[in-house]
Amino acid sequence: MSLPSFQLLRPKTIAEAVALLAEHDREVKIVAGGTDLLPSMKQKLFTPPYVLDLRGVSELRGIRDVAGQGVEIGALTTLSAIEHASIIRKDYSVLYEAVRTVASPVLRNMGTLGGNVCLDTRCLWYNQSLLWRKSCGFCLKKDGDLCHVAPGGKFCWAAFSGDTPPALLCLGAEIEIVSSHGVRRTPLSEFYVNDGIVRLRLAPNEIVTRVFLPASAAGWRGSYHKLRIRGSIDYPLAGVAVALKMNQDRVADARVAITAVNPAPHLVKDADAQLIGLAPDEGLAERIGEMAARTAKPLTTSALTPEYRREMVRVFTKRAVVACAN
Amino acid sequence: MTDFSIIGKPIAMVDAAGKTTGAGKYADDFKLPGMLIGKILHSPYPHARIKSIDTSGAKALDGVVAVITGEDAPNPYGILPVGHDETALAVGKVRYVGDHVACVAAISEEIAERALELIEIDYEPLPAWFDPEQSMKAEIDLIHENRPHNIEKDYHHVFGDPDKGFADADYVHEARYIANEVTHAAMEPHCTLANFELDPHTGKLGRLTVWSSTQVPYYLQHKLSLVLEMPMSQIRVIKPLVGGGFGGKSEIIPLEIIAAVAARAAKAPVKITYTREEVFWAHRGRPRTIIDLKTGVKNDGRVTSVACKVIQDGGAYCSYGVVTILYSGALLGALYDIPNIRYDGYRVLTNKPACGAMRGHGTVNVRFAFESQMDEIAAKLNLDPAAVRRINLLKPPTVTVNGLRVLSYGLPECIDQVITRSGWLERKGKLPKGHGLGMACSHYVSGAANSIIRSDMPHSTVNIKIDRDGGVVVYTGASEIGQGSDTMTAQVVAEVLGCDLARVKVIAADTDLTPIDLGSYSSRVTFMAGNAALRAAEEVKKNIVSAAAKRMNCPPEDVIMRNDHVYKRGVVPGDHDPTAAEILEEKDAPRGRVDGQILRGSVLQTRKEEGPKQHMSFEEAVVSAIDFHGALTGTGSYAPPAEARGGKHKGGGVGPSPAYSYSAQVAEVSVDEETGEVRVHKIWAAHDCGRALNPVAVEGQVIGSVWMGLGQALEEEMVWKDGLLMNPGMLEYRSPSSAESPDIECIIVESIDPEGPFGAKEAGEGSLAATIPAISNAICDAVGVRLRESPFTPERILAALRAKKGMKRIEMTESVDPTAPATFREHGGSLWFRGKGPLRDPLDPSRQPSRASAVLGGKQ
Ligand SMILES: Cc1cc2nc3c(=O)[nH]c(=O)nc-3n(C[C@H](O)[C@H](O)[C@H](O)COP(=O)(O)OP(=O)(O)OC[C@H]3O[C@@H](n4cnc5c(N)ncnc54)[C@H](O)[C@@H]3O)c2cc1C
Ligand code: SF4
Prior knowledge:
The complex is a heterodimer. Chain A is an alpha+beta fold. Chain A folds into two domains: 1-56, Uridine Diphospho-n-acetylenolpyruvylglucosamine Reductase, domain 2; 63-118 and 159-325, 2-Layer Sandwich (Enolase-like, domain 1). Chain A has helices at 14-24, 37-42, 79-83, 86-91, 93-99, 105-110, 113-117, 130-136, 164-170, 271-275, 282-295, 306-325, and strands at residues 7-9, 28-31, 50-53, 63-66, 70-74, 174-179, 182-187, 207-214, 221-227, 238-247, 250-259, 266-267. Chain A has a five-stranded antiparallel sheet. A four-stranded antiparallel sheet of chain A has the order 9-10-11-12, sandwiched between helices. In chain A, helix 5 runs antiparallel to helix 9 and helix 11 runs antiparallel to helix 12 (306-325). The mean pLDDT of chain A is 96. Chain B folds into three domains: 27-126 and 185-282, Aldehyde oxidase/xanthine dehydrogenase, a/b hammerhead (Aldehyde Oxidoreductase, domain 3), CATH 3.90.1170.50; 148-183 and 284-451 and 645-799, 2-Layer Sandwich (Aldehyde Oxidoreductase, domain 4), CATH 3.30.365.10; 457-638, Aldehyde Oxidoreductase, domain 4 (2-Layer Sandwich), CATH 3.30.365.10. The chains are: A alpha+beta, B alpha+beta. Chains A and B meet through helix 8 and helix 12 of A and helix 3 and helix 21 of B. Iron/sulfur cluster (SF4) binds at residues 123, 125-126, 139-141, 147-149, 156-158, 196, 301 of chain A.
């Protein structure tokens, strides 16, 4: 399977990058580490005439502790760099736990945080070669007019399968987006669209430049539980992130987020309301687990059965809450 | 002789440096001037008639040199003489999604891929068969017209009196087991480079050279000759380094023939390398299998009778299928003493990629069923699983009821070893909640006693040439595929000749240079090519010894070749430290000058050496021998003895082997009862390999086998949806990663086989089959659920656990109960084929409304 041919654009600055994006608009795909985009290009899921390589833009790299404001992570920072940054491990443990589970060490050396946040949604009927998709029949997400997973509808259920976004959602992260029209900043929770095709509120000419972890979330206890078959390499088949701000043994603030079971990562609504003020025990953890399971709508987009994956969201949430509380 | 200098020592693989530095050359590393890249067009249909193919568009594309289709090479072939049902490219019909239809040879991969898009094919879809039990009922729309009911082959064997055996039993246990499909997933994808030379006299295409990632160069040469209608002598097959085969390269894979046909059409070298997805379509892995097993036992666990019905979902072509289904039955024997056996085996055709030989060929899935059932019986009769196995041991030398001769038999010691090392007696039943121990045994052939193509030719031949430089060149057709056959050959020869390993150069698997060897499959190489190498070396040695005897003025029996020197018995040179007792030992035999023996040594030597010598360097001895004999060469070959070739019944040729390896394993696992996830903490694996010629290599093979078994037990599964493979890649087809690989303690048991080279038997396959049931038995020990469907993925285990605890049912296993599976499970979702995609035949199972609505109803 060869990579389709394209012209590579290699800007050195953000300004150059956004100018190139504006120039080529819908004909260009951004590549950072390439660990998600390149396999998909080989499968001819994308055949862009231009590929814009961000790796020359050094201002996009690095983790900065900004006094009083929290931590900024450049979009091009590799997952390994985040994994090994002591500040992340100390202050944002849920992100530390999540980032360590992404793919494998080699892929984390290449993969970036921006790429992880902007990851394409995944589906067994979509992440396949051109030959496979031709044989099966194309689906809504690429070239087709129906969905194999839920054939009755006109909706794509491909699962968002990134590991760090649920952790970032728990931390109340925001992201900075730049285009030739300017800079905007948005909470990550408003970045995703629960639709396997639309996915992100990101225009083709925009770049995610930075991720902000607020100071207010520093020191929250965190736990990330990931369902996968192998101990490494695998994308999540379900993932649960829990972050609790503890005041003695009581919860002062809380967030619970799930991934890989919907077209977008989701914060579990009202989990905080249930937790705040209480000392979590098994029973409470169990209830939060059930709330999370109700938020999960897995379908046959991945390995293992949807019913099992949903059940694991329940179990993992319960465990993650208990792990944080103790 | 047990005092070896090279045999039995841990020795690094002779080809290790190239592999670890990247300097080693695999097929895909070869390039020739003017070489074209071949790309293959595959069928999008599981079953369809080809009405027409129009290649004109592809041919017109700039950079395309040739486009070939089935008509360019229509001769059928297949690895088995009874199964010549394949053609290089489809002729008239396609039989699975991924079947090979056309090939483009172009100046670049990208152009070739683009050209494929320009080939226009008019297909007429036919109803397809996906479930073997349905397929067996087929009356029309057969996959191959000459195979009624889509049954490739069925066998019905009765040995002893099974009915009486069951009548005599105190207890009879019966269950259905299902093993889902797995594939080899070798690291190197298949690759072939084919090149024709011009005939100097006619200017036309002459000899063909093929570099291919194959385990069987000789068979490839043979099938190429058949399809291309060329004499074998005009075809040279070279096997470069191979990055793993595991059976997936043990027959002719379509690209090997297609590359040659394309090179002929293009009049230029053509290289084809499969994509990983194409490797999955080419497949030849272990078929998904239904095993209905019934065992009768006495109250003490002694087996009185076994009845076994096996249905294998063989895919669209015969491949090794007839052999697989026979192995599945035959290898019920030779592990335990089973007095009565009934076996009904069905190899069924379906519209899926062809299954073939895979590590532990034929035995693995049935062994999973059998060893699970042993434990079920032990539980029922309240016996220790180890005791049930021990009471059923064979008493060799013996010939089993189904005609398998067993001489060396290290199974009892294997069982003892794993029981002791794992602390079985003390720990079993006393582990913390959710933890368990399980045991199982297995065995495998050390080469098939009968070759695929029945003939009296030797199975292996080895030539040796030694020249005045003292270099020992060994020519063997045996195929190094990573298992260490070159190293084994070098060790055997060096041991016999008493020379340094570094002197030995192995030239292997090049049909122009090396004598015929059947190839690397059925774990035959060490036993057969090893024996041939041993004999060749002994022949050469005889000539060196006779010349040396003359120079040292002693009888030939007193010449000892060791440590790269040639000694006279009893004479220990001062500046050496010979370790062999025999050099030191004086013999009473009369010694002294033998009259009339003036050596015709080289001028140089006669001048330098005065009188008879006491010892010589290896080179000196070689020079003397060449001077004396004119040349120093030797040949050895091996054919299995007639007594080992099995019974006379139909199909009795498969299963017999000159020797069997044995394995016993204990697995320690823990199960998370809330998630169904299993962790394998440790596996103790004892393997009887006769003599361990190279202990590190044996350990590597055993660990690799256990690891592969672990994959099949817990993670690996080809997931099908109406003939479409849902996971044709290494991301979704999950071979275990190092992260969840357990500690494996390999215990080598040496039973010293009377016929093996230095007593060696096989080490590469026999351990795999025990791992799967050992894990399943350990899971059952840990949490009390008996899984009869592999792999034991977490949702299967959780479903079983919830059912056992009487918890609310969650449909987690797509309607197949993993403790009592009735049919194969299909992936959920729905192929509607209403949208933008190929229109399938209305009779296709995927289009049948009942199923479609069931799927829909369940999912919405
Ligand atoms: C075998 C394998 C296993 C994997 N397992 C996991 C896993 O377990 N968990 C997991 O989360 N991921 C997994 N991945 C996916 C991937 O490796 C990671 O998500 C990685 O972080 C992606 O980053 P990247 O820089 O390589 O992305 P790229 O491939 O470069 O980009 C991914 C997408 O994001 C867009 N993009 C990238 N950067 C930006 C930016 N700054 N602004 C706007 N758009 C941008 C690209 O256009 C592209 O669409 C796996 C990948 C492979 C090949
Ligand atoms: S969910 Fe449906 S539409 Fe989306 S990728 Fe999968 S099959 Fe296609």
